[in-house]
Design brief:
binds iron/sulfur cluster; 15 helices; OB fold (Dihydrolipoamide Acetyltransferase, E2P); Rossmann fold; 5-stranded mixed barrel; alpha/beta; 6-stranded parallel beta sheet
Length: about 425
């Protein structure tokens, strides 16, 4: 986006309506639902292109990397179909003039007070259900200096919260520096003025970067929040998923994280209906969810993806309805757990960042919640607050997945 802007184009993200010189749809092809969402958007713009209401239709990203031939055949309205590394192709096809801009330059597609920082690309792991290594290639870390420089630039533009993402964040640094240096990266990012929160997503459990625990426990800017996708707990399933970790090691890791970072909030994601998941495996998963009491949790029915090890070697033997039923059952357990955690917050004063202002309330988030996926705090509309501001609120009510609060006017949480 920044390169297009450098070439003199006006770039609009997630733009409604028609009348553009070019529409670039950057697709996701990770699992069936994501592919379907991409296809729906492509079809919407293909219609507009057919009616002559918009300029060149360009499709890029993972879905077109995976299914280029099929898209060429099925979407004749598309002018340009490229894969993941699409920029040079777009530059040629759209006749972009000078496009030099520093690699750290960004145009944000998020609200201006938070930004995702992608610290590496690709993945060397071999999870049986995952197509990402085939699409994105080998794990390549970005140098610390480049990330710090990008984060500084973002802070200068008003970003207050950095959300670290990667396909395999736990391996950050191994290819470039010969060891995992995620903790050091967090320390360096936390020195940037005006960055107040740094959040870690997608930490793979096998080979977990334990150095980050000390930083999380001791550094005020690093959120005591960790997204650690576990996928399952039964040894039978974990083994067939080729996750490189078993039940015992997973439980020990969770204990270690909670002991070393008191008050940490854990988020995980799980899969139901993986090939061969027996009722017993599923019951084990459900018990695990009840006992481990993750503060945040998402669950997805397994999607049998062409090109994965599981697709080539295992039978997708559980009907979709059953996969969904199992996912719903897990979510029912989690609903109770989440409601319990939220009830405990009533009467407490907490610090939030304001995400948006609605007609009758402000919407905010705590240090323990990531945008889009976690809980929100709905705050009475009294006083002057604006997006990106940090403020203290008193929690007055709780739902299953959200909190209700009023502002106290204080900026800092009392010790
Ligand atoms: S670590 Fe994540 S991206 Fe890599 S193979 Fe496993 S699930 Fe896929």
């Amino acid at each position: 986006m920044a390169k297009f802007a450098a070439a003199g184009w006006e770039v609009v993200f997630d733009a409604p309506g028609t009348g553009y010189d070019a529409v670039i749809i950057n697709t996701c092809g990770f699992i069936h639902d994501a592919s379907q969402e991409s296809i729906n958007i492509i079809l919407e713009y293909a219609e507009a292109r057919k009616r002559g209401e918009t300029g060149k239709l360009c499709i890029t990203g993972c879905l077109s990397e995976r299914y280029k031939e099929e898209l060429i055949r099925e979407i004749p309205e598309a002018d340009i179909i490229l894969g993941c590394d699409a920029f040079d192709g777009l530059r040629r096809e759209l006749n972009l003039s000078a496009t030099f801009c520093a690699p750290e330059k960004r145009l944000l597609s998020t609200p201006s007070h938070y930004a995702y920082l992608k610290i590496s690309e690709g993945c060397d792991r071999k999870c049986s259900f995952c197509i990402i290594p085939a699409i994105r290639g080998k794990h390549i870390s970005r140098p610390v200096e480049s990330l710090v420089s990008e984060a500084r630039m973002l802070a200068g533009k008003g970003v207050r919260e950095l959300i670290l993402v990667a396909q395999d964040l736990s391996s950050y640094g191994t290819d470039l520096y010969g060891r995992i240096i995620l903790g050091e990266l967090l320390e360096q990012l936390s020195e940037i003025t005006n960055i107040e929160w740094i959040r870690v997503h997608y930490a793979f459990p096998a080979g977990f970067p334990e150095d980050i625990l000390k930083v999380m426990a001791g550094n005020q800017k690093v959120c005591r929040y960790l997204d650690i996708p576990l996928q399952h707990i039964s040894d039978n399933v974990l083994k067939r998923m080729r996750r490189g970790i078993n039940r015992k090691k997973t439980l020990e890791l969770i204990d270690r994280i909670r002991n070393r970072v008191p008050g940490i909030v854990l988020r995980t994601t799980l899969l139901t209906g993986y090939p061969g998941e027996t009722q017993r495996d599923f019951d084990e998963l459900k018990d695990f969810v009840s006992n481990a009491r993750f503060e945040r949790l998402g669950v997805f029915p397994y999607s049998h993806e062409e090109g994965t090890w599981a697709f080539d070697n295992l039978n997708d033997d559980i009907p979709d309805k059953e996969k969904e039923r199992r996912a719903a059952e897990i979510m029912e357990v989690q609903q109770e757990i989440s409601a319990g955690f939220n009830r405990q917050m009533i009467g407490k004063e907490i610090r939030v960042i304001i995400d948006s202002e609605e007609d009758d309330h402000f919407t905010g988030r705590t240090e323990y919640d990531s945008p889009e996926v976690d809980n929100e705090v709905f705050i009475d509309k009294t006083g002057n607050l604006s997006a990106g501001a940090f403020t203290n609120v008193l929690v007055t009510g709780a739902g299953e997945f959200d909190l209700y609060a009023r502002a106290t006017g204080r900026k800092k949480t009392p010790p």
